[in-house]
Amino acid sequence: MENFKNLPIVKKLGFNRIILVLVLIAMYFVFSLGSGRMLGKGDLMNALNMVDYLGFLALGVTFVIATGGIDFSIGPVMVCAGLIAGRLLVTFGWPLALALVMCVVVGGLFGVLNGILVAYMGLPSFISSMASMMLAKGVGSVFTHVQNSNWPKTGDPNSWYKYFVNYNGFPTGLVFLLVVAIICAIIMNKTQIGRYILCIGSNREAVRLSGVDTRKWEALAYVICGLLAGIAAITYVGVITQVQPGLGDEFNNNAIASCVMGGTSMAGGVASIGGTIIGVFIISLLRVGIQAMGFRPDYQYIITGIIVALAVFADIRSSARKK
Amino acid sequence: MGEVILTMKGIDKSFPGVHALDHVDLEVRKGEVHALMGENGAGKSTLMKVLTGIYSKDSGTITYEGREVEFHNPREAQEAGIVIVHQELNMMNHLTVAQNIFIGREFMKGKLIDDAKMNAEANKLFQQLGIDINPAEKMGNLTVGKQQMCEIAKAISHEAKVIIFDEPSAALTEAEIEELFKIIRDLRAKQLGIVYISHRMDEIKVITDRVTVMRDGGYVGTLITEQCTKDDIINMMVGRVIYEDPKTASTVPPGAPVVLKVEHLNAGKMVKDVSFELHKGEILGFSGLMGAGRTETARALFGADPKESGDIYINGTKVDIKSPQDAVKHGIGYLSEDRKRYGIVVGKTVAENSTMAHLKDFLSGVFIDKKKENDVTQKYVDRLKTKTPSVDQLVVNLSGGNQQKVVLAKWLVRNCDILIFDEPTRGIDVGAKSEIYHLMNELAAEGKSIIMISSEMTEILRMSDRIVVMCEGRKTAEIDIAEATQENIMHAATLR
Question: How far apart are CA B12 and CA B21, in angstroms?
Answer without folding.
Answer: 5
